[in-house]
Amino acid sequence: MSSLEFLKSINNVPEKGKDWFYHVDLKSSQFKMENLNFMSVSMSGKLKEDIDTMKITIKIEYSYGNSFKSTYQKPCFGIENAFRDLLHMENTHTSCKECSVLFEKENEKTEVCKQCMFFVFRSKQKKDETKICSICQEEVFRYELECGHSFHLGCLAGLNRKDAKCPNCRMGINSKMKLEIFKSRNQWYASDSDSESDSDSDENIYDFNN
Q1: Pair type for strands 186-188 and 70-77
Q2: Could you tell me whether strands 186-188 and 102-104 are parallel, antiparallel, or unpaired per DSSP bridges?
Q3: How far is residue 107's CA from residue 117's CA, in Å, rounded to a whole number?
Q4: Which of the four pLDDT bands, split at 50, 70 and 90, describes residue 155?
Q5: Cα–Cα separations (whole angstroms), residue 117 to 80, 120, 140, 142, 192
Q6: CA-based R_g, the chain, Å
Q7: How far apart are CA 142 and CA 138, in angstroms?
Q8: Backbone dihedral region of 30: left (phi > 0), alpha (psi from -120 to 50 degrees) or beta?
Q9: Cβ neighbourhood burial of 168 (10 Å; 0-12, 13-18, 19+)
Q10: Contact status, residue 37 vs residue 54, Cβ threshold 8 Å
Q11: Are residues 23 and 45 in contact, defined by beta-carbon separation less than 8 angstroms?
Q12: Measured by CB atoms within 10 angstroms of the end CB, which terminus of the chain is less buried, N or C?
């Protein structure tokens, strides 16, 4: 069955000149990727001329650990291409080992996003002493707590948001670092830069009581 045939079966074929939207709830589903929790996926666009060249935005809402909802968006062209990209995302995308954001990998060996690659490069160039995340027991290059212990952001996201402490020495984690660990993140395809949402929803605002 083609993607177009599927949309016909659910009466959701794009109509010329009209906005089109498709949404699926992914919570507790088999749609998974490593340590990420997928919440929903949606596609949207407006059919102008040809359904094969229609611009479509894929939007995925996900979280890692106890972090708030994050959003990843990717533009593509054509219904078939959009569904192909979505259905094969576990083969083309991954979560960054350092910061856990969802991104498109360049090859099978890609493990960190472009933002975090700088910190890996810096550590290798300076020949820094290898630091190990005591939670997953793997090398860590970017994040360090005030107490001096280093962890991957995704590993720390398993902590309690209100009473987050260093897993090693139990020193309290300050509000700035809590925000880095648990904040919501918005990403566009081909851009690994993070931007804090302007939304005032409960998903994006949290009182860390610190």
Answers
A1: parallel
A2: unpaired
A3: 14
A4: very high
A5: 33, 5, 12, 9, 11
A6: 20
A7: 13
A8: alpha
A9: middle
A10: no
A11: no
A12: N
The pLDDT of residue 192: 40
Instruction: List residues bridging with 63 in a β-sheet.
Output: 37
Neighbours of 156 (CB within 10 A): 25
Q: pTM of the predicted model, to two decimals?
A: 0.78
For the chain, what are the domain ranges? 3-188
In tens, the pLDDT along 25-68 reads: 999 898 888 778 999 999 999 999 899 999 999 999 999 988 98
Q: How far apart are CA 9 and CA 3, in angstroms?
A: 10
pLDDT, tens only, 76-128: 999 999 999 999 988 889 999 999 999 998 888 888 999 999 999 999 898 88
Picking from 145, 153, 150, 143, the residue whose alpha carbon sits closest to that of residue 66 is 153
C-alpha closest to that of 173 among 134, 144, 196: 144
Instruction: Say if CB 101 and CB 192 are below 8 A apart.
Output: yes
Work out the percent of the chain whose per-residue pLDDT is above 70.
87
- Indicate the length of the chain as a whole number: 210
The answer to whether residue 198 scores a pLDDT higher than 70 is no
